[in-house]
Amino acid sequence: MRVATHQLVFLHGQPGAGADWQQVLARLPARMPAIAADRPGYGSSRQAAAGFAANARAVLSELDARGIGKAVLIGHSYGGGVALSAASQAPGRVEALILLASIGPGCLNGWDRLLAAPVAGPVCALVAWRLTPWIARARLARIARLRGSPLGPDEHVNWHIWGNARSDNGPLWRTFLAEQRALVGELDQLVSVLPAVRAPVLLIADPHDTLVPVATARRLERALPDARLQLVDGPGHHLPRRAADVVAAAIVAFLDTLDAGRRPGAAV
Question: How far apart are CA 203 and CA 88, in angstroms?
Answer without folding.
Answer: 17
